[in-house]
Amino acid sequence: MVESLLETDLTRYKPDWEKLGVVVAPFTIEADPRFMYLSTETRRALSKVSYMVEAGQGASVVVGEVGTGKTTLASWFHSRYDRRPDFVAARVDEPPKKSGLLLLRRIAAEFGVRTRRATEDQLNELRDFLTDTTARSVLPLVIIDEAHELEPEQFKELRRLLNFRDPRGGKAYQLILLGRPELDINLRQSKDFNDRVATRSSLDPLAPDDTAALIEYRLLAAGRDGRQPPLFLPDAILPIWRETRGYPRSICLLCLHLCLELLVTGGSHIDEAFVVKFLESHSGYRQAE
Fold it and tell me: GO molecular-function annotation terms (predicted)?
């Protein structure tokens, strides 16, 4: 009897992904812009935010529940703009708690700017950097993930940075905030900053059709030949969607476990019966990581 993956010593288990027709793991909960599936809402957010950034409009906000793809989107924005010669991007994955100065120091460090111990001194360092950089026709971009953790004092300092101007009179940097829905509540309590927000977008859970498309896209991105028979049969999608409620991170986690289980059991495809059996046998798969 084939041993279940969840009972296998994972420290010695090395999946043979080639058996699934892929060259790398197709599903992971780590943010990787190479595997970002563009749902309708994601495309809309990308389009709106990209336009505002490149038009120099200031601050853009993207909100979504846990697992809807905000961190992947943050990675995509950073990867896209940091490689361009007309942009320089700084990414703050998680803002420091409460202190406006600590946030400014973190942004400065990400840009390679000297950090200072006083708020005004740090603002001056950043202003010099931002204005000097934009004078060379390079636009600085700050991306802050988990922005729902920002405090009013930190919004105040971000607003002060937005007051800095480039030599042509435009904003000296662009800002993208990504966070949970609480971010919108916090912004309403920081009216002066909220008035500077140029666009807002939201990321919601996927519908069943998008769930199927995400799975197929990630398999293709991992190297699977689209001419091969489907790895996930159509009847597998609905139980996956029901279990994950359409949250991309949860979809990827479940599909990762399903693929690993398929490798261990030696099957050729994942259908409804396979998904149902796995969920019945391994209801604690989320804790098995």
Answer: ATP hydrolysis activity
